[in-house]
Design brief:
Elements lengths: L3 E4 L5 H20 L1 H11 L2 H9 L3 E7 L4 E9 L6 E9 L8 H11 L6 E7 L3 H9 L3 E6 L11 E7 L4
Length: 168
């Protein structure tokens, strides 16, 4: 199936939510268990939270759309804690679509959406070695580690990766 990367819209919220629930369970159930993952999905990926990301002025929310299905999503926004830095908050591809280049295509588009940014940063769950490897292939390298991925008191350790951007 062919997917085209485009900006997310209000009408995509339910498809995005379903994709995030599916990919979170496929990715994180082995590490944290289905109950903890269901809690994360419920709190982090509510329709209201997705809508807020879609309309955020200093962010970009993209979907890979086949016309009938959303195969992947990506969301990045300027990082207020660090000048000229973009935080890649989400890049998820439906498990059945992984390995088809959708994540790479979404990332390539996100990389161009912030012309004044010099660095892109991403936090990855420490146990998610597949994602760490993916980001390293895209040119990211480890700059830090943290104990609370996704928010305070999560208890989920993470690695922080950065990539210089070539925007001019």
């Amino acid at each position: 199936m062919v997917y085209f990367v485009r900006t997310a819209a209000e009408g995509d919220v339910e498809k995005i939510r379903a994709l995030l629930a599916e990919t979170f369970h496929a990715t994180y159930d082995p590490f944290y268990g289905p109950e903890k993952v269901a809690q994360l999905v419920q709190s982090w990926h509510s329709p209201a939270a997705i809508r807020a990301r879609i309309v955020r002025k200093d962010g970009e929310f993209l979907v890979a759309d086949s016309g009938s299905d959303v195969g992947g999503i990506g969301y990045a926004a300027m990082y207020p804690k660090m000048a000229k830095t973009v935080m890649l908050h989400q890049l998820y591809v439906r498990p059945a679509c992984q390995g088809e280049g959708i994540g790479r295509d979404i990332f390539a588009e996100l990389e161009t959406c912030f012309p004044y940014a010099e660095i892109m940063r991403v936090e990855v769950a420490l146990q998610n070695l597949r994602a760490v490897s993916f980001y390293e292939r895209l040119g990211f390298s480890e700059v830090d580690r943290m104990e609370e991925w996704g928010g305070p008191n999560s208890g989920l350790p993470a690695v922080v990766l950065e990539k210089p951007l070539q925007n001019l």
